[in-house]
Amino acid sequence: FISSLSANSIAGYTTLYDLNHEPILILRVETPRPIYTQGNMTLLLFMSIGAVALIAFGIAILFLLERLVISRFFRLTREVEKINDGRDLSASVYEGEKDEIGRLGEKINQMLKWLREARESEANSRREVVNLLDELKKGKEQAEEMARILGQKK
To answer: How far apart are CA 15 and CA 57, in angstroms?
Structure first.
């Protein structure tokens, strides 16, 4: 029979028999447990190293996520808000790298370009309408003048 007495020692028991197979003695052997103790210390060390590594990797991932993703989204958001608040379609946003965030910036700039072109086209159309109205007004005045002249000749 083997029994652990504590974390540091273990005991083993056996029965000794005489020539007639009668039990005459119970032998007890007690010994220290250095391998078990070293195993526990190694396990504790590995768990500590794992915890430190997990915390270090967590901090590194948060730092990289902040640096490579979140800060770029905040910058893009600030630039879009600035354009919106100033209603300045001639401005553009920083596109940065050619990843998803960069492509989003590129698409925002393309949209701003289309809005500028649409605004310019609308302004041109308004100028043409005003010019046509001016020409119609002049034509109307000329027609009234001719009608007046023809009315006087009768």
So the answer is: 56
State how far Cα 89 lies from the chain centre.
27
Question: What's the rounded Cα separation, in Å, for the pair 120 and 108?
Answer: 18
What would the pLDDT profile of 103-149 be if each residue is shown by its tens digit? 888 888 889 899 889 989 999 999 999 999 999 999 998 898 888 88
Count CA atoms closer than 13 A to 128's CA, side-chain side: 6
Evaluated on CA atoms 96, 100, 105, 110, the torsion sign reads positive
Grouping H, G, I as helix, E, B as strand and the rest as coil, residue 71 is helix
CA distance 57 to 64: 10
Q: Residue 92: CA atoms inside 13 Å, Cβ hemisphere, count?
A: 14
CB 101 within 8 A of CB 67: no
The C-alpha atoms of residue 115 and residue 47 are separated, in whole angstroms, by: 59
Model pLDDT for residues 53-95, shown as the tens digit of each residue? 999 999 999 999 998 888 888 888 888 888 888 887 778 887 7
86 alpha carbon, distance to own chain's centre: 27
Q: What is the pTM of this model?
A: 0.52
CA 67 – CA 51 distance, rounded (Å): 24
